[in-house]
Design a protein that fits this description.
Length: about 325
């Protein structure tokens, strides 16, 4: 399956096919040099599949996890690119989850003022959400994704078979983003999680999410309006993630709890809670309200005494709402 993303800065294809990783070079079709990037959490079998297609290319494997998404790791990657003489005409290929995509995309965006990069996501989270759209970032000063750049990939290759090596927790973590997209844009997608065996519909779920993300990104590449809807659950979720030390809870788990925290429709919250339970995702956590509020004030969506949140009162109809920080504080303290 091929989906074409057409933004104001770049058009690129997303190819989704089981086993496509084994044929990545055929799809990529680059005759120049490549720099391969991955993290140590990616199973060696997947790294080997890609490396064998580029036997002369250097593969840099960094220590993964959210805690590694920082300036130190970024400098490590940039130094490796420089040491291996990556030029402006060369291509960075990122193989891994959301952290690899963020680090690879951000490094590509600033190395020699920008080089091409290709994303090969290997987790549910990255295949469903983070691999497309061009948002790249690192965490800085204890806050999530607050230093980064918009840098669109040249291509995305989605191989659902790579999900087979995920732990159950990592697998379900990424599905939180699919639930989110159903809530804001697609009632049928949310109903699938409510009523069906989601494991029987995995490729359908990923395809639906890719199409939703494509449409939103094409309409609003730099997140000035509609794309903010994709932040449902992230506003408080990012604060939870930072508060618990980035690796205390996974990103999708924090999004799940963030959706529950911000939603005001009680009947809908009940339905969401049941879905999260089916997906083995948490619906709440313990935290110090004052600390979470301070983290909220540093959120990218905050503007001094006001903040834009995403709310859902009816499935499939997410909307933006501008509220005061005092109102947000009350939500956190409730």
């Amino acid at each position: 399956m091929q989906i074409n993303v057409n933004t104001t800065t770049k058009s690129y294809p997303i190819y989704m096919e089981r086993g496509i990783l084994y044929h990545a070079k055929e799809y990529i079709g680059r005759c120049g040099h490549v720099f391969l990037l991955s993290e140590d959490g990616v199973p060696e079998k997947w790294r080997k599949v890609l490396q064998e297609q580029y036997p002369d290319a250097y593969m840099h494997v960094f220590h993964g996890g959210e805690a590694s998404k920082n300036f130190d790791t970024l400098q490590e990657i940039l130094a490796a690119m420089s040491d291996h003489h990556v030029s402006r005409k060369d291509t960075l290929i990122a193989l891994g989850g959301g952290v690899t995509g963020d680090m690879g995309g951000f490094a590509a965006s600033i190395y020699m003022r920008g080089i091409p990069y290709i994303n090969i996501p290997t987790t549910t989270l990255s295949q469903i959400d983070s691999s497309i759209g061009g948002k790249t970032a690192i965490d800085f000063h204890g806050r999530k994704n607050n230093v980064g750049a918009f840098w669109q990939p040249d291509m995305v290759l989605v191989d659902v078979d790579t999900l087979s090596t995920l732990t159950p927790r990592h697998f379900h973590n990424g599905l939180a983003e699919a639930v989110k997209e159903g809530l804001i844009k697609d009632p049928a997608l949310f109903a699938l999680f409510e009523k069906e065996d989601y494991m029987d519909h995995l490729e359908e779920i990923i395809e639906k999410c890719l199409l939703i993300k494509k449409e939103v990104v094409e309409n609003d590449e730099r997140e000035s309006g509609e794309r903010k809807l994709l932040n449902f659950g992230h506003t408080i979720g990012h604060a939870y993630e930072s508060y618990h030390g980035m690796d205390g809870y996974y990103h999708g788990e924090c999004v799940a709890m963030g959706m529950m925290s911000i939603m005001t429709n009680e009947a809908l919250k009940e339905r969401l809670e049941k879905v999260l339970e089916r997906l083995q995702l948490p619906s709440e956590c313990t935290y110090d309200a004052d600390a979470v509020i301070e983290l909220m004030k540093a959120d990218k969506k905050a503007d001094h005494d006001r903040i834009t949140i995403v709310q859902v009162d009816e499935i499939g109809k997410g909307y933006l709402k501008d509220i005061t920080m005092d109102e947000m504080e009350r939500m956190i303290r409730k």
